[in-house]
Amino acid sequence: MEHALDITLTVNGTQVSRRVQARQHLVDFLREELGLTGSHVGCEHGVCGACTLRVDGVIVRGCLMLAVQANGCRVDTVEGLSDSKELAKLQKAFHEKNALQCGFCTPGMLLAAQELILSSKKPTREEIRNHISGNYCRCTGYQAIVDAIEEVVNG
Ligand code: FES
Ligand code: FES
């Protein structure tokens, strides 16, 4: 028999309460229960970064965290950070630099890049590359992504 638990968390500023299966991953909960499909599911093994989310201000792999582990937490997804305009500069730079093709990696890439920007360092190109090294892009070759992030960092 499946084990279900009641959880309450804040998602993109709105409190949400649900009964969830103990084994459900956070990214699946967001996508399937809340319809927040901006966070993507790629490898489901913590490798590709497509499922990157922010939990209590820190980016995490949504495929490695259970929904029940987010009980009491604040969760921000690309939808919320886009609506709040927090990602506006990055989104504009990605658009202008053609830093995406299929867009599958883009939500996770934006969240990872924003974490680097919030750390308020002036990262070098190499440091930008290191920071996004856990986010895989199968389309762009990364050059334009690094260009876009660099533009915001130096903006
Ligand atoms: S789907 Fe989570 S890291 Fe790939
Ligand atoms: S734009 Fe297609 S995976 Fe990055």
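^ FE2/S2 (inorganic) cluster complex. The chain is about 35% helix and 15% strand. The pocket of FE2/S2 (inorganic) cluster (ligand 1) is lined by residues 41-44, 46-51, 61, 63 (CB under 6 Å).
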